[in-house]
Here is the input.
Amino acid sequence: MFLRTITAAGMVLALATQTWQIARADDVRSEIEAVNQKWDDTFNRKDAAGLAALYTADAKLLPPAKVIISGTDDIKQFWEKSLQAGFADHTIKIIEVQTSGNLAYQASRWTVTGPGKDGGRVTIEGKLVSVLERQPDGTWKARLHSWNAAP
Here is the structure.
């Protein structure tokens, strides 16, 4: 009887833990969706300084080109150039989010409109991966951001 009680208690504890982990994963996904919405809104307002503030101080951008952009000032300059080039209407849609401690990663699809060859607008799309870090105040900031664009 004692063994059955321990086994039943263990099963209840395991089920409760699994349920909590699923609920927590949903919470983190919602938090990362909110971060993405803030990123899109900031991009679409053409606010390069605001974009740079969404990254950790030592963050790295890994765009499709060979260059690696590091730190707040260089990240701000990178986004200023992109915004000045006429990119707008950015959206991010999550494919997957996973967490471990204070780190999370997301795999997502993105779209943006930009200047076309004939002076019109074209839609550009691709995939992105970012590693985010939970800050002491509970917010998430990007530590690493890499993306590609469909040909």
Remarks:
- The helical segments are 2-44, 48-52, 71-84.
